[in-house]
Design goal:
The protein has 731 residues and is of the alpha+beta class. The protein has 3 domains: 31-180, Ubiquitin-like (UB roll) (Roll), CATH 3.10.20; 189-582, Creatine Kinase, Chain A, domain 2, CATH 3.30.590; 597-729, Four Helix Bundle (Hemerythrin (Met), subunit A). It has 27 helices and 17 strands. The strands form 3 sheets. Strands 9, 10, 11, 12, 13, 14, 15, 16 and 17 form a 9-stranded mixed β-sheet that branches. Strands 1, 2, 5, 6, 7 and 8 form a 6-stranded mixed β-sheet that branches. It starts with a helix and ends with a helix. Bound molecules: adenosine-5'-diphosphate and magnesium ion. The site of magnesium ion (MG) has 3 residues, from loops.
Length: 731
């Protein structure tokens, strides 16, 4: 009998919801106590320091060194009052998650006698050299050649975890190349700000700054900790590599509408309390489609900050899940046969004057601005659909995309009937029409009445990877474990580059004597025609769409390592370089990291599956087969020959079936090992990743098939790993 499995099941079944201590205060009273936000700053910094710092944050200018000195002093005071003893530069390497190296505040005082004091200078706040040679850099930073630096990002508040002050930082090489996600994100945000302000000025000269906003929706699974530890595949790869579907999973759609299980509700409550302490405005929580699947989402915020908050929330959730005897799974596809997890990125742009640029306006002028931004966004996605796909593609997300539940592996834009009609109207208008303000007023661009209808009533096409939802675009293809920055760098960059082109076009036309409205209208008409191929409101899951998309020239590549090529195509390199976000060297280096990561993930999965198959599955299947054989012998010796033969028919069939699947596993594991050996000899990282995709990964499916068939046959008492029905239904 499988003791580990049944012990785990027993442990999980007995668990009760944990009591959660309420802060006994309204969120507004303790919101942000763990972050050095403006409220805390005003208490610990002088008026002058505060002003220079907030101006620097708001306008994105560099902070003078002596100001950093003052900020560090104030921050240290606050932190020590909060019981903090250590500090760390918190950064986002190109691997999953975040990294930190803790240093204590203690130092020798600058006097004889070895007196110890708490020290935290402006220099330590502003810059550090983590010994980070083991972080992937795609060869930019050879271990012997130079170090990487972390540098303070004042636009995201420092925060406290346990006894440590965490300072959000960028991570760059000695020669200035980005080794992280935050650096290019900040550059992309600044590029889109500048480009969008230039376009906004056509409509409102008062606009000085355009913010990019992000509202993420984080999906995840929870499994009981005991069951998790009984599954080596979950532990080592984040997903189940084998496991037959449960007879009941999500067919009845009862989980989505059901009440959150008590144990999970307690977990969620605690996550919320904790998130509020970090100034993370969690707003919604609910069950998702699959059993054990849930979602949380905050009120949206400025993109850089919202992204840091998402990373922080993932680690908060992980910690609290542990406390509640759960394990948090943020892999995109932990279980076959039920929905995977995504992280929808709701994205919009807004001005310092409070205007949402994807929000329909009230006046013809505002509406022309709205339509301009929407059309430019569509155009940007059209021109860069391959890059946007690359920005969200990982080994994990590949299991989710293209399956019958998540956005397909082709990027298209869903607009809904209202906006589609408006664009059709512009497209159909005659090029000879004289477009004036009065004319626009008369036509009202057909969108005058849109706001009320749209926001409550946007057609919800869940099959679209990139959908307009009333006042924002929702990029749904992002994977649940991703750093949103990857998608946000790409999206804000392509938008910046597109807006620059747009502005140039308008300037050119106006310089030639055309009126502003006419110039805008004509350019939009041209764009609407040009980017039509990207618009698709139908069913993204259908096979017809795949054929149609190919005909339209959209990127339909499905191989993860090949999809990454889009990052280093001449078009993409030019786009990123033209707006100063990343150069060719950085893009190439980052792709090396992506290919290497892909290879490693498949390599680990292959090894783990090989081990489980040989050490867990085959021995148990053989044991059961032996029991059956034993039964055959016994029946033979008990009954006369003909009778025994009849009685043994069932046994023999099963014995043969087991033999077939054991052999299926054994042969395919051998072949997979061979394929890996061959792939490992390839030096070129791209070619190696492709070899892993083409020649190693397919075995994962074949071996799984044989194992899952055995799961259906082998005595339940013997089966060594918790089954889906045990993993997936938290009581
Ligand atoms: P749904 O599941 O219907 O898409 P949710 O309420 O779960 O809706 O998530 C919507 C997300 O979009 C939230 O995080 C919300 O803050 C965010 N959001 C709303 N308006 C905007 C906007 N203008 N810009 C960016 N994000 C937004
Ligand atoms: Mg959504």
């Amino acid at each position: 009998m499988s003791t580990i499995r049944f012990k785990a099941v027993e442990e999980a079944t007995k668990r009760l919801p944990l009591g959660v201590k309420s802060p006994n205060m309204q969120p507004s009273e303790y919101y942000g106590v763990n972050i050095f936000d403006r409220k805390q700053m005003s208490k610990y910094l002088s008026k002058e320091t505060m002003k220079v710092l907030t101006d620097a944050i708001d306008e994105g200018i560099t902070l003078p060194r002596e100001i950093a000195e003052h900020v560090a002093a104030g921050m240290k005071l606050w932190a020590i009052e909060m019981g903090v003893t250590h500090y760390t530069h918190w950064f986002q390497p190109l691997t999953d998650g975040t990294a930190e190296k803790h240093d204590s505040f203690i130092d020798y005082a600058n006097e004889p006698g070895g007196k110890i004091i708490e020290k935290f200078s402006g220099k330590l706040l502003a810059q550090q050299e983590p010994d980070a040679s083991s972080f992937p850099s795609g060869g930019i930073r050879n271990t012997f050649e130079a170090r990487g630096y972390t540098a303070w990002d004042p636009s995201s508040p420092a925060f406290i975890v346990n006894d440590t002050l965490c300072i959000p930082t960028v991570f760059i090489s000695y020669t200035g190349e980005a080794l992280d996600y935050k650096t290019p994100l900040l550059k992309a945000l600044s590029a889109v700000d500048k480009a969008a302000v230039d376009v906004c000025k056509l409509f409102d000269p008062k606009v000085k700054k355009v913010y990019s906003y992000l509202g993420w929706e984080q999906e995840f699974f929870l499994v009981d900790k005991a069951l998790y530890h009984a599954r080596p595949d979950l532990k080592l790869t984040g997903r189940t590599l084998i496991g037959h579907e449960s007879a009941k999973n999500q067919q009845l759609e009862d989980h989505y509408f059901g009440a959150v299980p008590m144990r999970v509700a307690a977990f969620m409550r605690e996550v919320e309390f904790e998130a509020y302490r970090y100034g993370i405005p969690l707003k919604t929580r609910h069950n998702e489609v699959a059993p054990n699947q849930f979602e949380i989402a905050p009120i949206y915020g400025e993109t850089n900050l919202a992204n840091d908050q998402n990373l922080l929330v993932m680690s908060i959730m992980d910690k609290i899940a542990n406390k509640h005897h759960f394990k948090l799974l943020i892999h995109e596809k932990p279980f076959a046969g039920v929905n995977g997890s995504g992280k929808h990125n709701n994205w919009s742009l807004g001005t310092n004057t409070g205007v949402g640029l994807f929000t329909p306006g009230k006046t013809p002028n505002e509406n022309l601005q709205f339509i301009s931004f929407v059309v430019n966004a569509i155009m940007a996605v059209y021109k860069n659909n391959a890059l946007l796909k690359a920005s969200i593609m990982t080994a994990g997300n590949a299991h989710r995309l293209g399956a019958n539940e998540a956005p397909p592996i082709i990027i298209s834009v869903f607009l809904g009937s209202h906006i589609s009609k408006v664009l059709d109207k512009i497209e159909e208008s005659s090029e000879d029409d004289d477009i004036t303000v009065e004319e626009l007023q008369k036509m009202k661009l057909g969108v005058a009445h849109i706001p009320e209808v749209l926001i409550d009533n946007t057609d919800r096409n869940r099959t679209s990877p990139f959908a307009f939802t009333g006042n924002r675009f929702e990029f749904r293809a992002v994977g649940s474990s991703a750093n949103c920055a990857s998608a946000m760098i790409a999206l804000n960059s392509v938008m910046a580059a597109q807006l620059i082109d747009f502005k140039k076009e308008i300037d050119k036309k106006m310089n030639a004597g055309m009126k502003k409205e006419q110039a805008i209208y004509d350019t939009l008409r041209f764009y609407i025609k040009e980017c039509k191929a990207i618009r698709f409101d139908g069913n993204g899951y259908s096979d017809e769409w795949k054929k149609e998309a190919e005909k339209r020239g959209l990127n339909c590549e499905t191989s993860v390592p090949v999809i990454y090529d889009s990052y280093i195509s001449p078009q993409t390199v030019h786009m990123f370089e033209s707006i100063g976000v990343m150069n060719e060297r950085e893009l190439k280096a980052r792709n090396e990291v992506k290919w290497e990561t892909y290879t490693k993930k498949i390599q680990i999965e292959a090894r783990v599956l090989g081990d489980i198959s040989m050490n867990h599955i085959i021995p148990v299947a053989t044991q059961y087969q032996t029991a059956l054989l034993d039964n055959v012998y016994k029946l033979n010796s008990t009954f006369e020959k003909e009778k025994a033969k009849t009685l043994n028919e069932h046994n023999i069939a099963l014995i043969e079936k087991i033999a077939t699947h054991i052999l299926g596993i054994k042969n395919n594991v051998d072949d997979m090992v061979e394929a890996r050996k061959i792939a490992n000899k390839i030096e070129n990282v791209r070619k190696k990743a492709i070899a892993y995709h083409d020649t190693v990964a397919p075995y994962l499916e074949i071996i799984r098939y044989h194992s899952d068939e055995l799961e259906l046959i082998v005595d339940n008492q013997m089966w060594p790993l918790p089954k889906y029905r045990e993993l997936l239904f938290i009581s």
